[in-house]
Amino acid sequence: MLGMLAVKALLKPLSWVFRGRYPGKGFIVTGLVIVIPVVLMAVLAPLVSPYNPIKGGREWLKPPCPAHPFGTDNLNRDVLSRVIWGSRVVLAVVLTSALLSASIGIPLGLFSGYVGGRVDRVVSLFMDAMYAFPGLILAIALASVLGPNIINAAIAISVVYIPTYFRMGRGQTMQVKANLFVEAAVAAGASSWRVLLKHVLPNITPTLTVVATMNMADAILTEAGLSFLGFVVTPPTPDWGFDLRAGQPFLLSGYWWPSLFPGAFILLLSLGLGLIGEGLNEVLAPKEYRI
Amino acid sequence: MSIARFIAMRALLALPTILILLTIVFFVMRIIPGDPITAMVGMKAPPQRIEELRRMAGLDKPIYVQYVEYLSGVFRGDLGRSMIWGRRPVITEILDRFPATLELTISAFIVSIAIGFATGMFAASRKGRAPDTAVRFYGILAWTLFIPWFGMILQLIFGVWLRLLPVGSRIDAGLEPPTITGLYVIDSVITGRWDSFVSAVKHLVLPSITLGVVLSGAYTRLVRNNIVDVLNQDFMVTYRAMGFPPPKVLLKAVRNALIPLVTMMGLQFALLLAGAVLTETTFSWPGMGTFLLERIIYVDYTCVQGTIVFYAIFVVAINFIVDVIYALIDPRVRY
């Protein structure tokens, strides 16, 4: 689904997104204006980061100034550089986990929704139970037994979102399945695989794109939460959630900049993706499938 | 169907959900490549120590024995014993911390409902105009706020700069009221201890606003959309045609928009608990969330598993209660 999203974003020239007229444009444009710079920042980190994010200079907890726009932290490191490098961890974890949970949840949902019957009931029961459980707490449980590192955090987060993709994939499949063209394809002798891939999947792709975008907005907060609690990176690796936590004792003494800037970027990225999702919901999803 | 029968049926339906959740928790805590104890302690611990911890956690037994013992334990209310400090029963340890989480979540819930209704009604009454768009944006923004970040901004403003409110713990040392319900605000009122009450409320303000605001986004959206929907229905048009003043019409709409909200509250509860973990950590609030994290650090495996089980049962119980409330206010669901 992410592939489809990327293809769509690349094929339709970006200029149309900004100049064309379509519903939900305000949300999409605002979201993109936020998300694109953050992604560029992550990709170009070695080029745009003004200092080494791990090695400190000589200035201890220096407030924001022209040389250090976001100030320096308690280990004399440039906060802006740490924010820039930290974006890599967040994006890597969130993208990996989204791909993982989508590639498990969606096929399972398609299958379960298409087959129906007892299999569907059992799988749904499990997925619903998981869905009802607080996501972050499930991620904490997984991360604690897996051990704290970036890959394990991505796995833990991906498990949390499998039920979301499953439910969406299943619900949409059941709706599409009821259509006459699916029945026609089956009557024409199409195999189940063909029906699923050629007739059902293309019809549910728009909605799944919306769900994937909104989910990533949420996954950023889960990643930040896990990182804040110490389950993603170990010092001195920069990561927004972790840096926010590391700066808290100093914030309580009035040195607010080592915490507030990384935290602001968590909000920005999540908000940007949330806005894109909101806009896509209005553009892509046909009214009756809208969430 | 009578309400009593509905409750009995619904309770029966909750059983498989609990069983599935317990099974998921069991496997999550076990079927992990390698060994959870090793992962938690890190590779540096001596092998004898790891072996000892495994035995204490019961992880040296065959998996089906572990599963049966675990399930029968949970249904008897026995979550095993803590692996550190005097080996207290896990359930006692959890119940020590539970009231703090309950107090936080209840007050955050009240905050979120209050904000959700105020903003949602405001937006619905000005549908399609600037305030409506602003509130819609608030809904998205509140939902994407990162709890620790927002909490720390409040700590900075009200705790560090204005020095109005405390930034951590539940109450000032020495002012703890005698335990009756375990909720400090209520206990201090019952026992008539004014100073404890003031201190407890002061400590509660920032954490509950933090968690409440973040959760209010969903209610804002839902209240707005429901009221707009109800306002468009024929019977509302009739009310307006009969010449009722707009505020009165709005109030009627609110009453009818309430029902879907109850379902939402059940769904939101899981978010409330997850958010509480972050809020507790940010404000050093001695609840279940901080307990869970503390025990993960101490490799108190039985306590970690027990706390997760407790969360699971708590969620199922709340969903059950929400469904019963739903059936009480909307008799249609009983049939």
Describe this structure in words.
The complex is a heterodimer of chains A (291) and B (335). Chain A is an all-alpha fold. Chain A has one domain (71-289): MetI-like fold, CATH 1.10.3720. Chain A has twelve helices and no strands. In chain A, helix 8 packs antiparallel against helix 10 and helix 10 (192-228) packs antiparallel against helix 12. With 335 residues, chain B is mainly α. Chain B has a domain at 96-288: Orthogonal Bundle (MetI-like fold). In chain B, helix 5 runs antiparallel to helix 11 (246-282), helix 5 packs across helix 13 and helix 8 (184-190) packs across helix 9. Chain B is globular, with a radius of gyration of 23 Å. The chains are: A mainly alpha (291), B mainly alpha (335). At the A-B interface, helix 6, helix 7, helix 10, helix 11 and helix 12 of A face helix 1, helix 2, helix 6, helix 7 and helix 11 of B.
Q: What labels describe this entry?
A:
heterodimer; A: 291 residues; mainly alpha; MetI-like fold; 12 helices; B: 335 residues
